[in-house]
Amino acid sequence: EILSFISRVEERTTRATDMNDTSSRTHCVVHIRLWRFNKNTGKIRASTFNFLDLAGAERIAEAHKEIKKIMEAPIAERKNLYDGMMNNYTLHIMGDVVDSILARMKRGKATDHRSQSFRWCALTRMLAGTLCPERAAITSMLVTVSQAPFNSQPTKDALIFGGKIARIRMQAKPHKAVKRAVFVREIKQRLATSLSTLSR
């Protein structure tokens, strides 16, 4: 069932640029939360899985060679350009968050998942539990590289970024088991918050 759900990732939006015929125009996050009920203790323990496919950083001048012409086009026709710029921005923010975590680790300080750096964009807010050493369990990252000479700089940048992620030392901690009544109350509160957000 989980694999069937994740397969929907194939439906994500792609568009052609001057560098890639099927360029991903957005990041893709599949967030799965599982609950296990222990009949003996009457308690529930939650587990969270985040599967993230980051869109690659885009060299705007090469991906959109006729950028002057694009900027003079109607707003609707600029979406491809804006998507690439937004991807670059969120990757930059994520890089800043990782740098902040590594700096705090070097100083021997804990990283608060509620800190301002995680709030800078939706991507880092979603990944607070994945990147924050004090909250995360296990985080793995696959870095896509290319042997093509014209991709040497993006490949170098991707490896540097992946190297920074690898330096974050996670402290695995299982979620605390809670009583069924507490769990139901929390779920109702989350549902109410979600419905309130959607109604705005």
From TrEMBL:
A GO MF label: ATP binding
Domain of life, per lineage: Eukaryota
All copies of domain Kinesin motor, residue ranges: 1-168
Record InterPro entries: Kinesin-like_fam, Kinesin_motor_dom, Kinesin_motor_dom_sf, P-loop_NTPase
Pfam families the record matches: Kinesin (PF00225)
GO BP term, example: cytoskeleton-dependent intracellular transport
Any Gene Ontology CC annotation: microtubule
Similarity annotation: Belongs to the TRAFAC class myosin-kinesin ATPase superfamily. Kinesin family.
Full protein name: Kinesin-like protein KIFC3
